[in-house]
Amino acid sequence: MQTFEMSQLSSLRRAHRRDRILRHSLRLLGSITGLLVLLITLFVLQEAWPALQNLGFIRFWTDGSWHPLEGSFGLMPMVLGSGLIALGATAIATPLGLLSALFCQCYGPPLLVVPYRRLLELLAGIPSVVYGFWGLVVLVPQINRLHPPGQSLLAGTLILSLMILPTVALLAIASLAQIPSSYWQGAAALSLSRWTTLTRIILPSARSGLFTAVVLATGRALGETMAVLMVCGNVVQVPSSVFDPVRSLTANIALEMAYATGDHRAVLFVSGLVLLAIVAGLVVMAEGISNQGMSSESVIVHER
Amino acid sequence: MSISQRPGLTVTALDRLLGFAMAATVIAVGLGFCWILGAIVAQGLGQISLAFLLAEPSNAGREGGIAPMLVSTLLILGVCLAIALPLGLGTALLLAEFTITDQRLGRLVRRSLDFLAGVPSIVFGLFGNAFFSQVLGLGFSILSGGLTLACMVLPLLIRTTEEGLRAVPPSYRQGAAALGLSQTTTLFKIILPAAVPGLIAGLVLGMGRALAETAALIFTSGYVDRFPRSLMDSGRALSIHIFDLSMNIPGGDARAAASALVLLTLLLLLNLLAGALAQRWANSS
Amino acid sequence: MKKISTIRQYSLGTVAFLMLGLTACAKPPQAANSEGIKLQGNIVLTGSSTVAPLAIEMGKRFEEQHPQVRVDVQTGGSSRGLADTRNGSADIGMVSRSLKPEEGDLTAHAIARDGIAIILHSENPVAELSPEQVVDIYQGQLTQWSDVAGGPTSPITVVNKAEGRSTLDVFLKHFDLKNSEIQAQVIIGDNEQGIKTVTGNPNAIGYVSIGAAEHSIGRGEPLKMLPLDGVSPSTTTLQDGTFPLARTLNLVTQGASEPTAQAFLQFAQSPQVQDLIEQQNFVPIESAPLAPSTP
């Protein structure tokens, strides 16, 4: 990172007004993103406020069930539902996405790689209602044969992992593409095996990008609504197996918002608020892990 | 960097395992995709004709075509990219190139982005309706739909572009500095062209996300299935049309599949176009 | 006539493609409307996604008669329709249920009726369920189809609607149930989701809009509707008032409407749109005498 600083200094010395303008306008642009987050959070908070004021925050965790029109508001099973679905989907999509990226970027024959990449790009563009529709008509009846009712945690996890796979794979491809070819050449010159080259050289140097890919994909999984709503069964309960139906926080909003008025509507925004809090927690956690990753990466740069 | 030596036998076994896992993944993902695509094609292909592409819908979309939705979709995507691309590129530059001078702001922005990536699309939709449609007075319009989508795709766009910029070797910057180039010139002539692969990955993902989005658009760009006369008119996106046909209109399934097929073709063409443009830019610089 | 309009549609499409739309596609001015009244301006309708497709079709026909008028239909659910009508961002709200007592500040204009039928997979041999059996099934006291006369030996999958939905309200009221008593295996939102859930699961029981179910059965999907109190559900029995489980689709307004909105309300309740109502699988209101047990 020393060298980077030097280049910064020398260009600063020559900096014209143009450079200053550039920097200030970039700062402005960057601030917009922060502002946007603030606005969204404030909006959800404002809509949820009446419920928080009337009911307090505790009841959403202590109430036994979710029947907002009959005065019970337990969110815990849905928090668990959202978490399990997202976790399962990320656990499946991460290895598949990584292997897909390695295939595309490192080992696959070009004749297969090009169409496979286009396929991944198209997967990213299939509307979630189409995934949900397919899941409901094809996947759910298959699972139903194994173990009724079919609409289940399993169905949601499988559909969702297919949906976030392109995010993991395409972002991983992009970060693998940026590894200098000298790394590969060096590994080849040492006649290292594929496995060693990957685990000791390639994956560590692409770590920051791969990590970003997984974080963005997990976020997507937590936020996905329509497909989850269609295949998960939406029963508010703590699942005892992967074949049990569950409801996610997002499905809760989408299912009930259309007919909700007054307090019911405000309570739905509380589930939105809880979801945002989960995402925020995830981001802070990811940042912690990623900082460790970054520091070990800079060690590599120095050694080089 | 030290590389530990391992007995050759283990390594080859692991190699074989890796190759096997890759092949299995590619086959599984390919099959899954073909399964979904096959279902769409089987239902929808028979419905597609020139009239379907060029006519207005009638009988709630069971008859007629999808021309107004195609126009609205392209307009919404246009607005979204016109806002998100410069904003995204600028922010990515800030994050990747000014990390030392703007460390605090950078960390804040990066945190915000990861947060935005996890905000459910229906919350974006309700927010877009409250902020763009009501506070800014844009109403149900293509403009407020495009702006809402821009907020949604920003994280994908910025984080991928940032990764692309980070991967540009420091020697490029040193060389530029040694030649006495200004920061601005260095950025636009040297750094950006080298970061094109990351940029394109973000763009492709962002476009896919934007075209596929439903929940965020129902409350912003709206449900009106006419040709929009201006950006201030409400216009129904293809994704909403697909959603409506498959979930709300009895007997709309085949038309929904046909519309999905058109949407995927459109995305394929746009992706090819983006790739070609990027290639040209990278070559010319 | 048909041909000409098709050609216009084609050319409109092409122009729109070319311009990518900033100023394209102003419709050619048409002859003055038959009634000679110059109505103009925009009418905005928001609300129930069940009513929206019907409202769009009505709007198109209204625009043909009054070329200076644009009818913009937006969805977002019945609650959105109520809220938007109250705060003035919509001229007319669409609500797929009757107004509640606390909504007395609004005026309801009934435009159509929609029945609700209990549906099973067509492979399920059960031909009829008594109201008590339906209650027991939904309360989780009957969990096997074999507990019902003629039923196969398989567990029942109970499909229920999400809280707040008007079909749920009507169902609960008719069977005198509370939503918290219901033991469901699957909870759904829209009608089509219910139909697809039941066609994909031979052991499922659910309830959906009669029009939607009739449409699916007509297309040969493996679905059947169960009679209720001896009356088999169909748009015909709904129309003559013998089928008990129904809801009213309403347009709602607050205070006095603009002349254009008023004209549209009258139009939407007139015989001129009867064919559109039937086309969207609902039952026109004039010919439907109010069923006795409707909430």
- Percent of residues in helices of chain B comes to over 70%
Order of helices and strands of chain C: HEHEHEEHEHEHEHEHEHHE
CATH superfamily of the largest domain in chain B, please?
A: MetI-like
Estimated helix fraction of chain C: 25-40%
CATH fold title of the largest domain in chain C: D-Maltodextrin-Binding Protein, domain 2
Strand segment tally of chain B: 2
Q: Any idea of the CATH class of the largest domain in chain B?
A: Mainly Alpha
CATH architecture of the largest domain in chain C: 3-Layer(aba) Sandwich
Instruction: Tell me the distance between the termini of chain B.
Output: 35 Å
Low-confidence stretches of chain B: 1-9
Our count of helices of chain B gives 12
Q: In percent terms, what proportion of residues of chain C is strand?
A: 15-25%
Structural class of chain B: mainly alpha
Biggest interface, which chains? A-B, 113 and 111 residues
What's the CATH H-level superfamily name of the largest domain in chain C? Periplasmic binding protein-like II
How many strand elements of chain C? 10
CATH architecture of the largest domain in chain B: Orthogonal Bundle
Which percent range describes the beta-strand content of chain B?
under 5%
Identify the overall geometry of chain B. Answer: globular
Structural commentary:
Chain A has 304 residues and is mainly alpha-helical. Chain A folds into 2 domains: 1-54; 59-303, MetI-like fold. In chain A, 80% of the residues lie in helices and 1% in strands. Chain A is built from 13 helices and 2 strands. A two-stranded antiparallel sheet of chain A has the order 1-2. The termini of chain A are close together. Chain B has 285 residues and is mainly alpha-helical. Chain B folds into 2 domains: 3-47; 52-284, MetI-like fold (Orthogonal Bundle), CATH 1.10.3720. Chain B has helices spanning 8-44, 50-54, 67-97, 103-117, 121-135, 142-166, 170-178, 183-194, 196-212, 215-218, 238-247, 253-284, and strands at residues 57-58, 63-64. In chain B, α1 crosses α12 (253-284). The longest helix of chain B has 37 residues, at 8-44. Residues 1-9 of chain B have low confidence and may be disordered. Chain C is an alpha/beta fold and 295 residues long. Chain C folds into 2 domains: 41-113 and 249-284, Periplasmic binding protein-like II (D-Maltodextrin-Binding Protein, domain 2, 3-Layer(aba) Sandwich); 115-239, 3-Layer(aba) Sandwich (D-Maltodextrin-Binding Protein, domain 2), CATH 3.40.190. In chain C, strands 1, 2, 3, 4, 5, 6, 7, 8, 9 and 10 form a 10-stranded mixed beta sheet that branches. In chain C, β5 (157-161), α5 (166-175) and β6 (186-188) form a beta-alpha-beta unit. The longest helix of chain C is centred in the N-terminal third of the chain and has 18 residues, at 2-19. The model of chain C is unreliable at 1-35 and 287-295 (pLDDT under 50). Chains B and C meet through α2, α3 and α11 of B and α1, α2, β2, α6 and α7 of C.
